[in-house]
């Protein structure tokens, strides 16, 4: 017998499960590589007695409590609740993956004199770049009120260091995003799971080398049976000959990384400048140049993504074997656009589907470069 989908509420800082929520409609969630992901649940409240309604009010709409969608004991996505909206007789609750919470935390040590004092500065490394990312998160948990149930991977040696000034108020989430965007930067995902005692939920910080992968042999789905609704999205917007990355500074004192590639213009393509403004806290020109090279490699070709729906058991796997970054084989025949063939591709995102045993996948049709 197939498991059922359930929606759990748990304490964000401890992971302790406090309630199983009564919901209506299908589960709604997304989870992906290098992104926060999201969750939504619709909870009927009109039929509840006032005391029970008060209990639900106390659980919803604030990040002290997190939401988790589970298929049996597989946790699809979990993270703090941020919003709720009353619609008719239901309350629609919105939550995010853990990365969103880390994006709301500044990189600061456990104690310091003032945020402008050198005691508020932090340096991580030397270590492997993924270990630097993990150490940034680990140090943040030491701040007052900063505890989170995160399981970290083993530390790896390396030569990378990163420094952050307290007065920059750089967020942990932004620092992680910058690290993943660097040349040879690792994939990162916070994968929720039930703790071994099954009374709490914890997040495993998964770090790629540089890519995240899956476990065991790749699952395989064929179009028309276990694989359906394959759509194609291609975007060449950022396929540029010049990639500029703005860093810290003002006006003529601004720090700007640059990577130049004349391959396309030499072949008659029009000049395109890709201007990246998401790293304005970066104070090292060498880091900005590395970012520019990484963005240039990422967008060297148009980004083509497939979105599809798969029946998980038809691929010869269970939900437990699937996490963003896994590789699968997709057998395509009689598709109106994609030529027939067997395609081994990486899945960079998973999400809910209407059928309980199905998942929605975001598939990297064009292999990434870094």
Note down, in words, how this protein is organized.
15% of the residues lie in helices and 38% in strands. The chain has six helices and 21 strands. Strands 1, 2, 3, 4, 5, 6, 7, 13, 14, 18, 19, 20 and 21 form a 13-stranded mixed beta sheet that branches. A hairpin with a 2-residue loop joins strand 5 and strand 6 (74-87). The two termini are 43 Å apart.
What average pLDDT do the residues reach?
Answer: 94
Helical content stands at: 10-25%
Which residues form runs of ≥5 with pLDDT under 50? none
Q: What multimeric state do the chains show?
A: single chain
Mind summarizing the main beta sheet?
Answer: 13 strands, mixed
Rg on CA atoms, Å = 22 Å
> How big a fraction of the residues is strand?
35-45%
Task: Please tell me what the overall shape is.
Answer: globular
Question: What is the distance, rounded to the nearest whole angstrom, between the alpha carbons of the first and last residues?
Answer: 43 Å
Number of helices: 6
Structural class: mainly beta
Order of helices and strands: EEEEHEEEHEHEEHEEEEEEHEHEEEE
Query: How many β-strand stretches?
Result: 21
């Amino acid at each position: 017998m197939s498991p059922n989908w359930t929606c759990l509420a748990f304490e964000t800082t401890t992971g302790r499960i406090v309630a199983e929520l009564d919901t209506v409609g299908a589960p709604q969630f997304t989870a992906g590589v290098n992104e926060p992901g999201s969750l939504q649940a619709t909870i009927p409240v009109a039929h509840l007695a006032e005391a029970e309604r008060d209990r639900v009010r106390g659980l919803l709409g604030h990040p002290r409590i997190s939401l988790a969608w589970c298929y049996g004991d597989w946790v699809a996505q979990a993270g703090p609740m941020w919003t709720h909206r009353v619609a008719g007789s239901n309350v629609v609750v919105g939550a995010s993956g853990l990365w969103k919470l880390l994006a709301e935390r500044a990189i600061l040590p456990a104690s310091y004199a003032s945020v402008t004092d050198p005691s508020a500065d932090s340096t991580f490394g030397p270590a492997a770049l993924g270990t630097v990312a993990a150490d940034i998160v680990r140090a943040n948990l030491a701040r007052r009120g900063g505890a989170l149930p995160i399981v970290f991977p083993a530390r790896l040696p390396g030569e990378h260091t990163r420094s952050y000034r307290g007065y920059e108020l750089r967020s942990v989430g932004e620092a992680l995003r910058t690290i993943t965007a660097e040349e040879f930067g690792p994939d990162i995902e916070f994968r929720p799971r039930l703790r071994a005692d099954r009374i709490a939920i914890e997040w495993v910080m998964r770090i790629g080398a540089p890519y995240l992968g899956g476990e065991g042999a790749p699952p395989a789905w064929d179009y028309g049976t276990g694989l359906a609704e394959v759509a194609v999205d291609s975007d060449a917007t950022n396929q540029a000959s010049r990639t500029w990355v703005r860093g810290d500074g003002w006006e003529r004192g601004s720090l700007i990384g640059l990577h130049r590639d004349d391959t396309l213009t030499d072949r008659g393509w029009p000049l395109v400048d890709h201007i990246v403004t998401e790293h304005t806290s970066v104070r090292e020109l060498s880091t900005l140049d590395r970012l520019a090279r990484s963005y240039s490699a990422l967008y060297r070709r148009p980004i083509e993504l497939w979105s599809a729906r798969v029946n998980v058991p038809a691929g010869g796997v269970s939900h437990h074997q699937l996490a963003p970054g896994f590789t699968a084989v997709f057998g395509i025949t009689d598709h109106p656009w994609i030529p027939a063939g067997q395609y081994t591709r990486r899945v960079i995102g998973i999400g809910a589907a209407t059928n309980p045993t199905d998942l929605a996948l975001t598939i990297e049709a064009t292999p990434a470069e870094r």
